[in-house]
Design goal:
2 domains, binds uridine-diphosphate-N-acetylglucosamine, UDP N-Acetylglucosamine Acyltransferase, domain 1, 16-stranded parallel β-sheet, 9 helices, 18% helix, alpha/beta, binds calcium ion
Length: 466
């Protein structure tokens, strides 16, 4: 079996995105667009993957090489950018001595699948072609290169939109910019490409005419799904690609046994794992390496980033969870904010308007209303009353609060850290706790109530009935 080397072109500027960010770094389902063609090239076992960078190339290289830290992705700089043919010329040195097939992909055609690429390579090899390309028939072919077919329907040439005459512009079959080319043919003929055209560029598709004129075989594979081979040139196409990717991910999720109340309004990034019989409401965003267990309910408007949610847990409306671990049968929200470094143990409950940061809440413990819990270690079956606040920050440093099993923290308590509340202890409502509370004790730190009899009458404040 011959080897495959993949070249991914992305030195172009992407003017129509109207952006300071290089086009191939715009996100699709949480990943830079360029992530996808690289992943596809990897999945078909490409021996070498070469990314041609140019416009803001350093930024592209930094981001992509950190995403593929374990892989040996080569970056080749194309400066200045003199066209797609020139981009491939820049790679010649890196591929010296390579004997095999060269797969050429575009950084801005991210939806292409492994199956399609495998099909292209198979046809290329079985037909003995020197060059094979994927084409598509689309509604509005303007801006694209048109496919000219000769007798026997063979592809004989691509004409770019800007160079095409009136009749050629009527052709709706376009070049997708995805090719498989035998390396011998590629590097023997690349230098024959000229730049006598409207844009003064070296056009890679000119290789097709070079092959056809010499009677070498070219295969043009008409792809049935134009969506898959669409190029992204502006923000409308970016949104369409996001929609398509979402559909693919959501279909897979549903087929694995997860209910999506409305698949068009569930935003699940690739790589997120969800267990069986979990129900996802609308407007939910599941991001990063999030894992959701089985039998969970994730209600409307929740955002869960890089977190684990255990089986049977329910995340109620409009809660945000980031870099945290939620165990089994936990209830969170509505309107809760769980910040990084939080662990919520089995059967615990966190209610509305509660913020938790870098804390541990033990089994069965509850913080049901309006609290801030930061840098705290809370044991089992603890009750945190409404309005409780851990005062963890003294203006300079963060301090820890420890609350042991079965403690009861009355409403509106301030726990001035560092401080510890022992097992079974009670804290009276409205207390400001600055000293450790021993186990089994009651702590109270509020001023005793005083009643002044008849005070209202004396002040003349009594409301009279009319
Ligand atoms: C190209 C094809 C066209 C095809 C279309 C499909 C050429 C001449 N035309 O046109 O037939 O229908 O793609 O989307 O190839 N790039 C470089 N260096 C350059 C120029 C471009 O790396 O000097 C990269 C771009 O970043 C992009 C890809 O090559 O990823 C295609 O370039 P682009 O300018 O988008 O070509 P099109 O005009 O769309
Ligand atoms: Ca393009």
């Amino acid at each position: 079996m011959k080897d495959i080397a993949a070249i991914i072109l992305c030195a172009g500027m992407g003017k129509r995105m109207k952006s300071f960010i290089p086009k191939v770094l715009h996100h699709i389902s949480g990943m830079p667009m360029l992530f996808y063609p690289i992943k596809t090239a990897k999945s078909i076992g490409a021996k070498k993957i070469i990314v041609v960078i140019g416009h803001k190339g350093e930024v592209v290289k930094d981001q992509i090489s950190s995403l593929f830290a374990k892989d040996n992705i080569l970056f080749v700089n194309q400066e200045p950018q003199l066209g797609t043919g020139h981009a491939v010329m820049c790679v010649e040195g890196v591929l010296k001595g390579f004997k095999g097939d060269v797969l050429i992909l575009s950084g801005d055609v991210p939806l292409i699948t492994r199956e399609t690429i495998k099909g292209l390579i198979n046809i290329h090899r079985r037909s003995g072609s020197v060059l094979s390309l994927i084409t598509a028939i689309i509604e509005d072919p303007s801006e694209y290169g048109r496919v000219i077919r000769g007798k026997d329907n063979a592809v004989i040439r691509i004409v770019e939109h800007k160079d095409a005459n009136k009749d050629e512009r009527k052709i709706r079959e376009i070049n997708t910019g995805i090719y498989c080319i035998s390396s011998d043919f590629l590097f023997q003929n690349l230098k024959r490409i000229k730049k006598e055209n409207k844009q003064g560029e070296y056009y890679l598709p000119d290789l097709i005419e070079i092959a056809a004129v010499e009677g070498r075989k070219v295969s043009g594979l008409l792809h049935i799904s134009p969506k898959e081979v669409m190029g992204i040139n502006n923000r409308i196409e970016l949104a369409e690609a996001n929609k398509e990717m979402r559909e693919r991910i959501n279909n897979e999720v549903m087929l694995s046994g997860v209910t999506l109340i409305d698949p068009e309004a569930a935003y699940i990034q690739g790589g997120v794992k969800i267990g069986m019989d979990t129900v996802i409401y609308t407007g939910v965003f599941l991001e990063g390496g999030t894992k959701i267990g089985a039998n969970c309910i994730i209600e409307h408007g929740c955002r869960i980033i890089n977190s684990n949610i255990g089986d049977g847990s329910r995340i109620k409306n409009f809660s945000v969870i980031e870099d945290s671990e939620i165990m089994k049968n936990v209830s969170i929200g509505p309107f809760a904010r769980i910040r990084p470094g939080t662990v919520v143990d089995d059967c615990a409950r966190i209610g509305n308007f509660v913020e938790v940061k870098k804390s541990r809440l033990g089994k069965g413990s509850k913080a049901n209303h309006l609290s801030y819990i930061g840098d705290a270690i809370i044991g089992k079956d603890v009750n945190i009353g409404a309005g409780t606040i851990t005062c963890n920050y003294d203006g300079m440093r963060k301090h820890q609060t420890i609350i042991e099993d079965n403690a009861f923290i009355g409403s509106d308590t301030q726990l001035v850290a560092p401080v510890k509340v022992g097992k079974n202890a009670y804290i009276g409502s409205g207390s400001t706790i600055t000293k450790d509370v021993p186990k089994d004790a009651l702590a109270l730190s509020r001023v005793q109530q005083r009643n002044i009899e008849g005070w209202v009458e004396k002040k003349g404040l009594k409301k009279r009935k009319k």
